[in-house]
Amino acid sequence: MSLCLGIETSCDETAAAVVKDGRTILSSVVASSAELHKVYGGVVPEIASRRHIELILPVVDQALDEAGVSLDDVSLIAATQGPGLVGSLLVGLMFAKGLALAKHIPFIGVNHIEGHIYANFLAHGDLEPPAVCLTVSGGHTELLYIEEFGAYRRLGRTRDDAAGECLDKVGRMLGLPYPAGPEIDRLALEGDPRAYPLPRGLAGEQSFDFSFSGLKTAALQEINRARQRGEEVSLADFAASLMAAVVDVLVDRTIQAALETGVRRVLLSGGVAASRVLRRRMEDACSRHGFSLYVPPISLCTDNAAMIASAGYFRSLKGERSPLSLNAAPGLRL
Fold first, then answer.
1. How far apart are CA 278 and CA 282, in angstroms?
2. What percentage of the chain's residues is helix, strand, coil (to nearest 5)?
């Protein structure tokens, strides 16, 4: 039995988890500082890093207690190296390296995007590569071909804004509280997706890339035109139209990627994978093409340390280790 202690501090969640053999979660603790950032309408890096310093020790202690283990039982420590906010990353990474040095435990740095992928391997015990995975969140939108554990080929990525970033920024224009993405998803279920004419990014282009900056601009213009005419913007209809514009592109490119690579498994990961609109549309599309869709539970879609522990474990099986000189990499790519 191999126990991995995972630590995740890439943004505003301070998280720690203990995972057995890369597949079984013994504990997963997440402390969010979202309430502190709400008044600013987004994450303030300095506030986030200071909050991590306050929370990291009690969160790790709680994860070990809930798993019923001590550091002496841990055989690997995995921590997020990047991408993310550099100050936040440094707190978790340095804490993890300190534990590894003090207790002589092997250490490995993990790519945050890779961690999101492994949320699916935690949730579905029989899942194996190859697969196509759409990772979509507030900071990332990437389409990957997973040939085997730890081996990826990027098929496409956003050229500008991430999908979740677009939803949050348009939500702010509509006066929705931060983070706006979940509220837009909820409202979209009640609205008419054809009510507002919003563009599909890179429509007609033979590419697996994404673009959401144009959609964000078009949404702002549509809102301003309505207000200039003295019209009230229907939040439900606008949310439904916005979600349709985002989801149409995400689903279309993912299905095309699965057809091109010849895989039968499609994975969703990242915070936006919690969207009920995206889940339903992707499930319908996969069903029509005979693909199996794998999606993590909501608790594993958002940032957590269990996914970092799982990714670290599977990398360790290939003999990988990270030096204690490893530094945070806020722009790290997979």
1. 6
2. 45, 20, 35
- Helix (H) / strand (E) element for 269: namely strand 265-269
pLDDT computed for residue 210 by the predictor: 95
**Distance between CA atoms of residues 82 and 183, nearest Å:** 28
Task: Give which of 98, 168, 178, 115 is closest to 139, Cα–Cα.
Answer: 168
Q: What are phi and psi of 29, to 5 degrees?
A: -115, 130
Note whether 78 and 301 are within 8 A (CB). no
Q: What token pair was written down for 67?
A: 């798993």
- Smallest CA-to-CA distance from 314 within 108, 95, 94, 92 is with 108
Residue with tokens 């490893």: 326
More confident residue, 39 or 203: 203
Per residue in 289-327, pLDDT tens?
999 999 999 999 999 999 999 999 999 999 999 999 999
Alpha-carbon distance 136 to 143, whole Å? 9
Collapsed DSSP state (helix, strand, coil) of residue 36: helix
Helix extents (H) in the chain: 34-38, 45-67, 86-103, 112-123, 163-173, 181-188, 213-228, 235-261, 276-289, 298-301, 306-316
β-partners of residue 141 are: 136
Task: Return d(Cα 32, Cα 256) in angstroms, integer.
Answer: 36
Question: Which residues have CB under 8 Å from 275's CB, separation 6+?
Answer: 181, 185, 243, 247
Quote the DSSP letter at residue 71: G
Domains and CATH numbers, the chain: 3-117+301-316 (3.30.420.40), 130-296 (3.30.420.40)
Residues 49-102 have pLDDT tens digits of 999 999 999 999 999 999 999 999 999 999 999 999 999 999 999 999 999 999
